[in-house]
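Annex B. Sample input.
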Amino acid sequence: QAQLVESGGGLVQAGGSLRLSCAATGIKFNINAMGWYRQAPGRQREVVATITAGGSTDYADSVKGRFTLSRDNAKNTVYLQMNSLKPEDTAVYYCNAVYYTISGRRDVWGQGTQVTVSS
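Annex B, continued. Sample output.
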């Protein structure tokens, strides 16, 4: 069964760093793209960063220059390095993987990991 296993969330002071990891398991197709999304209380889920199988990345304006997304295709794992964290980065972070089958696009989501940045 396709699933994403996330790790690395926690509590950190403003200006600190955290590294999130997300490993995809049980996916029998080539994963097209992976990424991280986040949802703060009372707000909609928003994209943080995405990376294609070829390594092309895209970042939300709010995290550019502070977050770096990388990918290990051999391990089907992505890593989100978050530096210079701000209180407004506080949210539940969700990993996402996209792949295609004969039936079309499939999205898989992780269970979410809490990131809390104190001021």
